[in-house]
Design brief:
This protein is α+β, with helices and mostly antiparallel strands and 501 residues long. The chain is built from 16 helices and 23 strands. The chain is globular and about 65 Å long.
Length: 501
């Protein structure tokens, strides 16, 4: 049996390659950051070629650290930042423009135009998604309309669109020399171009958004042997799993039963609840999405609450305000004060996502007095993540009719124990941190390993999950209610900052 499963974890700020053993333990990891490009306020771009070269570098690095060769890997899976949009030349492999990142808001005018014609939910029945700048279909439309020659190339089949998973899969399997142009059902469900019922590109949606079918990748299950990797670093290894990052974390947390949920604390925050093999349409401002599809099994669906800015707020305090020198310093600074000093930070830097979907909101710090210190600002920034999660959880319980008993958590912020305890307090549910917190990469590994026969099935994956620490709620109800009322008041202050003057 091969020793390892490999996972490419291509995130918003960095790329990692992780080797996992059969117990789901990490054998080796390498990571490399990439640039965040801000051409205009609200515009966020990545250099797709930089991401690809960084991916190759971390693969080589992680294999070297483990003294492993391609023959030691049973398969490789990909997990990725989901809605980030790449358009590239089929013949040369060169991107036609920088990738438009999921946080990018340049399509706000397109969103407003479509909403004016048919309402914000005009595509929700087919796609599970409201009209928002978040999703990749309108980003693709913008590229086709604004990059010289792009639409002509797309119509002729000489331009290819994909989210980052497609870009990596194409390059890994040959690039201009026959690379596979594929995506999986989870990433396709974030384009606003796929029909949730059929799991296929929808001709009506393509026509409405003016996207030619020739530019689109083939939609595949999340777990299947798609082909063989051809680059020297992984020569001959099967590519066998693709999952959008938040769905990958759901799989990595072994949330295979309806009602099971996880929250990932990264650049943004993403709470997903497995709803089984039928999509549940949200009436409370959530997204209906594909959770995963393993081989020929029916697809599983999820309700998702997407929060744009959580870990990114800590980075903003580090890089823009420079009140901390590294992200990990935020907890110690926040512990310098005993409470938030009645300061609330609503990080609507690119509008508010679930459950509000307010593109015209912008960030506010409310409740400032001369008493406030940088410790209060730090604490308010952490609490903003927990408050936004409660906003989403309440909507999720309303939609699903299920009262959540516990919340499994993962991502870079879960080592912040001040945040995790406040999260349990403000939700009034237990927060469970697993021993392996790299559940996003683990989910991609699980998808690949199932396809390659490295793991036998879901029961084996469930046995791999183990608890590191449990945070139980300990806050008085009156205090919890007071804090949350003030938070909701601060959220209202952020609305409609941007106006169409």
């Amino acid at each position: 049996m091969n020793k390892f499963i490999g996972a490419i974890d291509q995130g918003t700020t960095s790329t990692r390659f992780i080797l996992f053993d059969a117990r789901g333990n990490i054998a080796s990891v390498a990571q490399q950051e990439h640039r965040q490009i801000f051409p205009k306020p609200g515009w966020v771009e990545h250099d797709a070629e930089e991401i690809w070269s960084g991916t190759r570098a971390v693969i080589a690095d992680a294999l070297g650290r483990a003294d492993a060769k391609p023959k030691d890997l049973a398969a490789v899976g990909i997990t990725n930042q989901r809605e980030t949009t790449v358009l590239w030349d089929r013949r040369t492999g060169a991107p036609l423009h920088h990738a438009l990142v999921w946080q990018d808001t340049r399509v706000d005018e397109l969103v407003a135009r479509y909403a004016e014609e048919g309402g914000q939910d005009r595509f929700r029945a087919a796609t599970g998604l409201p009209l928002a700048s978040y999703f990749s279909g309108l980003k693709l439309r913008w590229l086709l309309d604004n990059v010289p020659g792009a639409r002509a190339k797309a119509l002729s089949g000489d331009a290819l669109f994909g989210t980052i998973d497609s870009w990596l899969a194409w390059n890994l399997t040959g690039g201009p020399r026959g690379g596979l142009h594929i995506t999986d059902v989870t990433n396709a469900s974030r384009t606003q171009l796929m029909n949730l019922a059929t799991l296929e590109w929808d001709d009506t949606l393509l026509r409405e958004l003016d996207v030619p079918r020739a530019v689109l990748p083939k939609i595949a299950p999340s777990s299947r042997i798609y082909g063989t990797i051809g680059v020297p670093e992984l020569e001959g290894v099967p590519l066998a799993g693709i999952l959008g990052d938040q769905q990958a974390a759901l799989v990595g947390q072994a949330c295979f039963a309806p009602g099971e949920a996880k929250n990932t604390y990264g650049t943004g925050c993403f709470l997903l609840m497995n709803t089984g093999t039928r999509p549940v349409q949200s009436k409370a401002g959530l997204i209906t999405t594909v959770a995963y599809q393993f081989g020929t099994d029916p697809a599983h669906y999820a309700l998702e609450g997407s929060i744009a800015i959580t870990g990114a707020l800590v980075q903003w305090l580090r890089d823009n305000l420079k009140i901390i020198s590294k992200s990990a310093d935020i907890e110690a600074l926040a512990r310098e004060v005993t409470d938030n000093g009645d300061v609330y930070f609503v990080p609507a830097f690119s509008g508010l996502y679930a459950p509000y979907w307010k593109a015209t909101a912008r960030g506010v710090i409310a409740g400032l007095t001369r008493y406030a210190t940088r410790g209060h600002i730090a604490r308010a920034a952490l609490e903003a993540t927990a408050f936004q999660t409660r906003d989403v959880l309440e909507a999720m319980e309303q939609d699903s009719g299920i009262a959540m008993q516990e919340l499994r958590v993962d991502g870079g912020m879960v080592n912040n124990e001040l945040l995790m305890q406040f999260q349990a307090d403000i939700l009034d549910v237990a927060v469970l941190r697993p021993k392996i917190s790299e559940t996003t990469a683990l989910g991609a590994a699980y998808a690949a390993g199932l396809a390659a026969g490295y793991w036998s099935g879901e029961e084996e994956l469930k046995r791999n999950w183990a608890l590191d620490k449990r945070f139980d709620p300990a806050m008085a109800d009156a205090e919890k209610s007071r804090l949350y009322r003030s938070w909701r008041k601060a959220v209202q202050r952020s609305f409609d900052w941007v106006t169409a003057e």
